[in-house]
Specification:
Blueprint (H helix, E strand, L loop, with lengths): L7 H11 L5 H18 L17 E7 L6 E7 L7 E2 L6 E7 L1 E13 L2 E13 L3 E4 L6 E4 L7 E7 L5 E9 L2 E8 L5
Antiparallel strand pairs: 1-2, 2-9, 3-10, 4-7, 4-9, 5-6, 5-8, 6-11, 10-11
Helix pairs in contact: 1-2
């Protein structure tokens, strides 16, 4: 069951408006603009517990799965210093907006693949604060996300083109080579 919060219907309305096209670049551009507008308007207020982090790692909470568009809206809470390994989005586009605190996103390019191993190079590092939004569109989907702050939690909202129940995570094994592992994703309460 997804939580109710002030502004949820407005978020759903904007999501449906922004995803009415069929071009991922146009859709993600409209969604970034919609998220930034919603943050500026301050019309959405997430429950305060969404800012509270867990010491076990970042938390994923399902806010809305839209039957009309197929899109999925997630809230992710990042405690101080928490982050991900290099991962993909299972071929889905994603738009991310920062509601509280700041996050750092490092995008990677896949440079080589050999014998089940992968070599990446970092391309861009972006530190984004409240009110910022960005997007990832395959094949440019390899990245890490972290909360660089040592004292404050961060809250980011992620809109995916579908329900993301798994992704590939890349763990460094030796000398800049990574091994891919499929990871099942779950939601926190």
């Amino acid at each position: 069951m997804t939580p109710d919060f002030p502004g949820k219907e407005l978020l759903i309305e904007r999501l449906r408006w922004a995803t009415r096209g069929d071009c991922p670049h146009g859709i993600t551009s409209c969604l970034r603009e919609a998220l930034c507008d919603l943050m500026d308007e301050k019309s959405i207020r997430f429950p305060t517990e969404f800012i509270q982090s867990s010491g076990d790692g970042y938390q994923r909470r399902l806010l809305h799965h839209d039957d009309q568009t197929g899109c999925c809206v997630m809230a992710m809470t990042w405690g101080p210093g928490q982050g991900t390994q290099i991962h993909d989005h299972s071929g889905m586009w994603c738009v991310e907006g920062i509601w509280h605190g700041s996050i750092e996103v490092v995008q990677y390019e896949l440079m080589a693949q050999k014998e089940g191993r992968y070599r990446f190079e970092p391309r861009t590092t972006m530190r984004a604060g409240r009110g910022s939004a960005g997007s990832l569109i395959p094949p440019h989907e390899y990245h890490t996300i972290s909360n660089p702050d040592e004292h404050e939690s961060a809250l980011s909202i992620h809109i995916y083109s579908g329900e993301m129940t798994c992704c590939n995570v890349f763990k460094e094994v030796e000398d800049g080579w990574y091994q891919r592992e499929s990871r099942q994703l779950s939601c926190d309460d």
